[in-house]
Amino acid sequence: xxxxxxxxxxxxxxxxxxxxxxxxxxxxxxxxxxxxxxxxxxxxxxxxxxxxxxxxxxxxxxxxxxxxxxxxxxxxxxxxxxxxxxxxxxxxxxxxxxxxxxxxxxxxxxxxxxxxxxxxxxxxxxxxxxxxxxxxxxxxxxxxxxxxxxxxxxxxxxxxxxxxxxxxxxxxxxxxxxxxxxxxxxxxxxxxxxxxx
Length: 197
Prior knowledge:
With 197 residues, the protein is mainly alpha-helical. The protein has helices at residues 3-22, 41-50, 52-72, 82-98, 110-140, 152-179, 182-189; strands at residues 25-28, 34-36.
C-alpha cells in the first residue's frame, strides 16, 4: 500500500470514527454544541500522525459531515436569515471544525507537542464558535435561559465554554490515556511521513 493510499484510508476511517463518536452525546445544548465522547480525538490523531497539511484536509471533510449532522439536527429551523445562515455554516461548521487540523503543528515534540496541539486546536475551535455567537446570535436576539445575561459577548463565552471546556478536558484525558499505551504511541508518532510538517 502506498503512503498516499494509506493516508486516504486512515483519513476516511478517522472521519467515520469521529462521526460515530459525535453521536454519543453526554450533553447537548439547544442552539448547537454538545459534549461528546472524544469525537475530536480521531481527527487530532490523524493530524498528529500525518501533519497539518493532511490534518486540515481531513478536518475539512469532517466539517462537512458535521454540517450535514447540523442540518439533520434542525439548523434550518433556527430562524436565521439567509445571511446569518451562511455565516453560521461558515463559522460554526466549516471553519470551527477545519481548524482541528492544526493539532499536528507540534508533532515533532512527541507527547508534549501532541497535547499542546490538541489544546491549541480546541481553543481555536472555541474562538470561532465564540465569534459566531457574538456576530450571528446577537442579531437574532435569541438567548438561552440557561445563562442569565443580556451581554452577548459574555453569553457567547459562557454558552460555548459550557461545552468546549469539558470537551477539551475529556479529549486531553483521552489522548493521554491513548498515548500511554506503547503500541498506540508508536503508531501515532511513527507515520513515516515527513513531507507535510
